Amino acid sequence: MKIAVAGTGYVGLVTGVCLAEMGHDVTCLDIEEEKIALLEEGRSPIYEPGLEPLLKRNLHNGRLHFSTNLKLGYRNAQIVFITVGTPEKPDGSADLEYIYGAASDIANSIENDVIVCTKSTVPVGTNDQIKHIMNSTKPPNLKVEVVANPEFLREGSAIIDFLYGDRIVIGSDSEWASGVVEQLFIPFKIPIMKTDIRSAEMIKYASNAFLATKISFINEIASICEKVEANIEEVANGIGGDHRIGRSFLKAGIGYGGSCFPKDANALVQLAGNVEHPFELLEAVIKVNNHQHSLPVKKAKELIGSLRGKKVAVLGLSFKPDTDDVREAASLTIVNDLLEEGAVITAYDPVAVRNAQNILGDRIEYTTEIQTALLEAELAIIATEWDQIKHTPLDFFLLYMKEPIIIDGRNCYPLEKIEQYPLTYISIGRPAIIHEYRKSSL
Fold it and tell me: N or C, fewer C-beta in 10 Å, the chain?
């Protein structure tokens, strides 16, 4: 099929590359000339494992194209995927300006019948408005149908999720449009669920809200475990063994972040409020998560008192491993809390330094070497469970730090391993390990 993708952000780029990989003729469109120029060189503007090799391969074989010429890109497309951003407004609702702008651009450009698939996460009723905009703008002799086709991509494993995901949701009020999109995805051999258009819109929000709820739930249990001297890992393993619950998203830590969970949770609360339904459960989930972000600095102050003038290593800046995305990352709260306390910070991350620097500026030091971050530090806070951090020899904390005190916000290390070293180690929902240590004693 001839496919166009509106937007070359995270979802758009993965969608375009993967559909080209499946043999389709794909044109990805964006108004940012620098980004398009970069993509035409086969270079990805985002860090996503496996993405750049597929990007280069499909550029080389001629199935993948990039352009800023919207009219040319949309003109003869059979299916157009809308993947533009829906940033959060101050009240928590989704800003749909780019969605409706894309719909208008498509309607003004098409020269044949087209199916528009919305992959962007949008409030219930948005696709009806998209169809209204397009029908009001398109040439009268052409047919336009709109399909809600939400994405379920995890940053860090998006290629695998797109090609081998759990399910594909196709929401449409048109049997013809639903059938065409179904044919597009049948070769993926992934279960396909066909729904009405509004149910498909709600599925995306409900999915993310439920996963966020599991995270906040296990973090609340972790807080209780600390007070009753239980171990959250054993508790999570025990409850996760129940097939009705499952083990996924039951890892205690300092909360969720990124471009989806926080924004989608807030948007669903706002959506519920618009129909006069107070979503008290989800409001509590958000409150718990915000508290978790501040937990490492709170634990540090309880342990060592004032942080003024203390040299602190923050290990990990991205909101999760295998991505350079720092949106709503716990690390940002940690850094800002530390700065308020007067700490001196060196932050480590293997790929997210540039994006973090765009937000945090020159108020802290940055490094892509763990040893540099740890050098003469009096405290280390682990904010992201990068493999590079998890596989760091524990000797490094003893060799490089002035005081080997670790606040592990992601429970990266087994307690039995930590106990073999003279480290002070505070994690989430597990017993603390306290050692009196002075470097001069080595």
Answer: C
Q: Which residue has the tokens 């709109």?
A: 146
Query: Does the domain formed by 204-291 have CATH 3.20.20.150?
Result: no
Q: Looking at domain 2-195, does it have CATH number 3.40.30.10?
A: no
Euclidean distance between CA atoms 76 and 57, whole angstroms: 24
Distance, in Å, from the CA atom of 29 to the CA atom of 16, rounded to the nearest integer, reads: 10
For helices 126-137 and 97-109, what crossing angle results, to 10°? Answer: 30
Which of left, alpha, beta for 379 (phi over 0: left; psi -120 to 50: alpha)? Answer: beta
Closest CA to 210 of 127, 160, 268: 268
Q: Is the pLDDT confidence value at 286 over 60?
A: yes
Token digits for 382? 């682990």
259/154 Cα distance (integer angstroms)? 10
Superfamily of domain 294-441: NAD(P)-binding Rossmann-like Domain (3.40.50.720)
Q: What is the pLDDT of residue 437?
A: 55
CB atoms within 10 A of CB 416: 7
Confidence of residue 395 (pLDDT cuts 50, 70, 90): very high
| Entry field: residues in the chain | 442
Longest dimension (CA), the chain: 84
CA distance 304 to 62: 60
Interval 52-59 mean pLDDT: 97
Strands (E), 92-187: 114-118, 144-148, 168-171
Q: Is residue 57's pLDDT more than 90?
A: yes
Sign of torsion over alpha carbons 300, 304, 310, 311: negative
**Which amino acid, residue 235?**
V
Q: Is 260 a catalytic residue?
A: yes
